Amino acid sequence: MTVFDRAYDDTVRVLDEDGEVVGDLPDLDDESLVEMYRHMRLARHFDGRAVSLQRQGRMGTYPPLSGQEGAQIGSAYALDADDWMIPSYREHGAALVHGLPLKQTLLYWMGHEDGNNAPPDVNVFPVAVPIASQVPHATGAAWASKLRGENDAFVCYFGDGATSEGDFHEGVNFAGVFDTPTVFFCNNNQWAISVPRERQTRSATLAQKAEAYGIDGVQVDGMDPLAVYSVTEAALEKARDPETDRPRPTLIEAVQYRFGAHTTADDPTVYRDDDEVESWKRKDPIDRLESYLRGEGVLDDERVAEIESSVEAQVADAIDAAESMARPDPRELFEHAYAELPPELERQYEEFAALRDERGDAAFLED
Amino acid sequence: MTETQNLTLVQAIRDGLHTELREDDDVVVMGQDVGKNGGVFRATEGLFDEFGGDRVIDTPLAESGIVGTAVGMAAMGMRPVPEIQFSGFMYPGFDQIVSHMARFRTRSRGRFTLPMTLRAPYGGGIRAPEHHSESKEAFYAHEAGLKVVIPSTPYEAKGLLAASIRDPDPVIFLEPKLIYRAFREEVPEEPYTVPTGEAATRREGDDVAVFTYGAMTRPTLEAAETLGEEGIECEVVDLRTISPLDREAVVEAFEKTGRAVVVHEAPKTGGLAGEITAILQEEALLYQEAPIGRVTGFDVPYPLYALEDYYLPSAARIEDGILEAVEF
Questions:
Q1: Where do the Transketolase-like pyrimidine-binding domain residues begin and end (chain B) (predicted)?
Q2: Which whole number is the average pLDDT over B82-106?
Q3: For the residues B267-286, what does the mean pLDDT come to?
Q4: Span A89-101, mean pLDDT?
Q5: What is the spatial distance between Cα B61 and Cα A212, in angstroms, rounded to a whole number?
Q6: Is B100 annotated as catalytic?
Q7: Does the pLDDT value for residue B255 go beyond 90?
Q8: Which tens digits make up the pLDDT trace of B118-133?
Q9: Contact B117, B167 (CB under 8 A)
Q10: What pLDDT is stored for residue B55 in this prediction?
């Protein structure tokens, strides 16, 4: 029996809240597990620093991810380098695992479009802000790969709120019809800004929505990185090389919690109870994996301290690198709108550039 | 000697799709009813039989899904040519068009570009039901990152479509369905392109410049011929691409005549006529000898067909508009 043959509410788990093994461990060696743990610590520390930078006015509005490291790192860890990631706007941890430098993520939220320009060997799509709008892209991109006889898999991230949008349904429906190698990964973090999961749908689970499109659906404990890894790995494998009677696409619902605000512009104390937040914090995915690895003798105080200091140094370096980037030249406003700049745009730029030459940057820039 | 066929506009579009499918394996045609059925206007007739269901793809009925999956395909380097069955049904896909199709290149600093061409039959005059006749090309012309092409002859339709499909940037290709079958023209069988972004002078004249595009080109030329018999010579410029607009051609024709009228079937407010008027104010004010006239659809929802002949600019209304500019 595969993970896809279970009831939609039969949540896949490998580690319980205390880090005890309650399911089938994935086939990962100790160093891989430590690496996964390190990525989670890195994502958590990065997130804290990012919120702090926003508070200090060094970064714009930022969507925090704390609490979701299990789902993000566990799933991204299952991807091959050739596979593609189509993120929403909160998958900084997943993108990091797939090779996107932290500096890029910082740049994007610091207002530099260049943050979306991943290195050419990193298969990540640009951040997508309009909710669920990236879902059809993931289907289309996967479809292109299939039509060209390539063998890549595509993972598309979105939240629970996205499952209410038309684009979710259209994108997943196309994937079902054309059997595209797409893994739809729903980060069900319980809240779409202030509106709870129960206000998005009367469905008992989000995983069961797969049924409507004739694809596989599975619910996984999103606070359990090893369970998320196992499920995603199985879904990717099926996307690349389906058994004859199984659809390529899968909808994974990773049940988890956003510990912090929707974005730094949001105050979650208005709409949710401290008790709820505390009860989910007891399921912290980082603590859970750490307990397991300590119990196995793979991690000890010394190794954890070493990881913590290397993570802090890595984030500090990324912040230095991002903050030392010069403000982009205004020519970049025009440069990429079209492959070849239309004459009128060239004229608009030249007019602006002449004025900038005459008046200097001070006439345009605040502070 | 180049072989030609005597084709209607919609047949020329079909021929253009056929040619590009043959020339480039990355081209796929996709949309509702484009496959076995050959399209509700027959624009894709026979293509499914020749190229198969992986190149000429019948999709589910879902405009956002059609545009959005084409965005994903194009990002991966394919050249999808999605069809929306009527431009009046583009709105469910509007978010994908403006939020992604238009912006992907800019947002990724050129790493991803979207070589996709979104086709739709557009405009009125064919006695269609409600929501089948709208001309909202200004929405798309307003959106930076897109090109918007509107052909008015069979020869150019094939060449402009080929240029659009080969363009590295996304193109909205609007097909005036009033003239899908209104006349025929010799169209070469071989591949060729007509460059986008360039207007064409359809008639030379010294008295007044008349700017138009798409289905309105014919009644405009008709009005120009009638006035020509009265000794009023109109220069008729067919824009062909409304974004990016051929400002040079517009300014040049105006400077030659000092008078201008813009004709389009889209509503007046916020339409292309206002844009052209503004360009002439910016660039050629001192040549101006009369107010710039606008002969357009009215600022009302597109009517059911009992009234559409009154709604659409007719040769008579166009004549009247030109006379006002000339007699000022």
A1: 7-182
A2: 97
A3: 98
A4: 98
A5: 16
A6: no
A7: yes
A8: 999 999 999 999 999 9
A9: yes
A10: 98
Calculate the average pLDDT of chain A: 96
Placement of tokens 């790192």 in the chain: A73
| Share of chain B residues as helix, strand and coil, in percent rounded to the nearest 5 | 40, 20, 40
Put simply, the answer to whether A343 touches B64 (Cβ < 8 Å) is: no
**pLDDT tens for each residue of B167-222:** 999 999 999 999 999 999 999 999 999 999 999 999 999 999 999 999 999 999 99
Q: Is B65 on the interface with A (CB under 8 A)?
A: yes
Q: Residue A137: which of B54, B62, B75 has the nearest Cβ? A: B75
Nearest-5° angle of CA A224, CA A230, CA A231?
A: 90
> Which residues from chain A sit within 8 angstroms of residue B101, using beta carbons?
none
Q: Which of A83, A85, A137, A177 is the mutation pick for testing B, counting most B CBs within 10 A?
A: A137
A44 is catalytic: no
What radius of gyration do chain A's Cα atoms show? 21
Residue B85, sorted as left (phi over 0), alpha (psi -120 to 50) or beta, turns out to be alpha
Query: Which of B95, B96, B110 faces A336 most closely, judged by CB atoms?
Result: B110
- Residue B115's closest CA among B124, B107, B105? B105
The residue assigned the tokens 């104390």 is: A269
Distance between CA atoms of residues B4 and B19, nearest Å: 13
CA distance B259 to B326: 7
